[in-house]
Amino acid sequence: MDSKKAEAEFTWKDLEIGCIVTEPGSTQYYRTGDWRSQVPQYTFTRCIKCGVCALYCPEGCISPNADGNFQADVFWCKGCGICARECPTGVISMVDEEE
Amino acid sequence: MGKKVGMEVSLAIAEAAKMANTDVVAAYPITPQTHIVERLAELVASGELDAEYIPVESEHSAMSACLGSVATGARTFTATAGQGLELMHEVLYVASAMRLPVIMAVANRALSSPLNVWGDQSDLMAVRDTGWIQIICENGQEAYDHTLCAFRIGEDKRVLLPVMVHVDGFYLTHVIEPIEIPQQDKVDAFLPPFSYPLPLDPDKPLTMGAFAPPILFSETKKAQEVNLRASMSVILENWAEFAKVFGRQYKPIEQYKTDGAKILLLTLGSFGETAMAAVDKLRGEGKSVGLLKLRLWRPFPFEALRQAVREAELLIVVDRALSFGGPGGPAFSEIRSALYSEKNRPRILGFVGGLGGRDLMVAEFEGMVKRALEMEPSGAEQEFEMYGVRE
Fold first, then answer.
1. CB distance B273 to B167 below 8 Å
2. Closest C-alpha among B194, B161, B24, B25 to residue B93
3. Are B173 and B202 in contact (CB under 8 A)?
4. Which of B158, B207, B231 to mutate to test the interface with A (most CBs of A within 10 A)?
5. CB atoms within 10 A of CB B231
6. In a domain, B223, yes or no
7. Cβ-defined contact of A20 to B213 (cutoff 8 Å)
8. Which of B68, B86, B326, B384 has the largest count of CB atoms under 10 Å?
């Protein structure tokens, strides 16, 4: 089963026997970001690069960006808001996805 | 030639699993299946069967352990009955959907309540839609033969599906019958070693039984449906091969004295043996009666059924289970539905009888034919009856 293929592209004939997944770690291709109703918004000038948000993120989708500021990858971010609550300097605020 | 021996049918089923060189047995004892797994436990303990016997704490665990076992590529056998089959119910769907060919004997038993350990097919009918191949046996020889065939069918790379071999509790499991046990080398030649194409292996990690979101789930079910239907041709091919090697030919629907018969009885399981005697008697009285015996319950043999009833005017289906508040007997309902689109179909009537170990004797099968002839003209209101119930 080619897990990089979008789910909607699979026909019933493309599935491996018993829907076995033969590629380890393939859930990284599964977009959980579309479950989200809120998205984190950042004021990086306040970021002290402590990484607390990354430690608390239940998705493990937060890592330092090019500037070393911690940022969620919205491909996986489910918008739970735990990072916003835990950030000691108030970098993150959750805003509705529509905005 | 194999040797014909007097053997309890339960022990013959255990013998088939032994001669198939089963690697793993995970089972929980329950009446009337107990002798099958007791015997296998003995065979493993004595070293006659080189297998792992997992004494689990429930049937739910038994089937779960079987899934893990097959997933590693081990040939796996279990057996259960009645309430035990119900307790493993949710895991049955997992076995078929994950394409793990567990082979299981089911000693058909009534479902509580009231508590009743005796034979009936309520358990069989309750697992109808679990996606397993389901084969129904009529006597001890068939129980041995179909247990052996089940391994070859289920483990076939084109199939890879779990198989239930149904035997009526007590009526078959606890009787001693003359059974031909073939020589081991013949069994070995008939049954190739099991090789699961994608086994659990630390060197080649894979995920089994993963989550499927709505956008994939229907595709997985379609694949499962196509696969189970396609197993029909492989089942027939395997039975033909079995006939070549062992001399007994099995069919999805067995026929007895059906030539030119205007009235057909249709039974499932051990009823067939008694019904044959009734047919002999009725034929002796000049009545145009024959018998159909449904062997393959899933995949359902639509074409074989249509062919078998072509010349009949009246088809009487005898169920050993009841669909409460529904169409009567589950087999009756399916058979009627399978024939609905036929231009020339017999009138179809159903009886439900023999529940919870109530014996139906030759006279009762004769009585059902007579009763059906009375019911025949009276229309749709009376398409099924519970037979032999005291008013």
1. no
2. B161
3. no
4. B207
5. 23
6. yes
7. no
8. B384
Cβ distance A12 to B219 less than 8 Å, yes or no, reads yes
Model ipTM?
A: 0.85
Which residues in B lie closer than 8 A to residue A19 (C-beta atoms)? 97-98, 209-210, 212, 220, 223
Has residue B52 been placed in a domain?
yes
Nearest CA in chain B to A13: B223
- Of B231, B246, B261, the residue that ends a domain is B246
SS3 B159: coil
Range of the domain at B69: 3-246
Residues B198 and B101 in one domain: yes
* Judgement on whether residues B238 and B268 belong to the same structural domain of the protein: no
Q: What is the pTM of this model?
A: 0.93
Structural domains of chain A, with CATH: 1-30 (no CATH), 31-96 (3.30.70.20)
Q: At which residue do the structure tokens 């016997």 appear?
A: B53
Q: Is B67 on the interface with A (CB under 8 A)?
A: no
Give the model confidence (pLDDT) of B105-136 as tens digits. 999 999 999 999 999 999 999 999 999 999 99
* Tally of domains within chain B: 2
User: For the domain that residue B285 is a member of, what is the CATH number?
Assistant: 3.40.50.920
Nearest to A18 among B208, B213, B219 (CB): B208
Q: In this predicted model, what pLDDT tens digit does every residue of B240-270 receive, in sequence order? A: 999 999 999 999 999 999 999 999 999 999 9
Domain termination residue (choose one: B211, B246, B281): B246
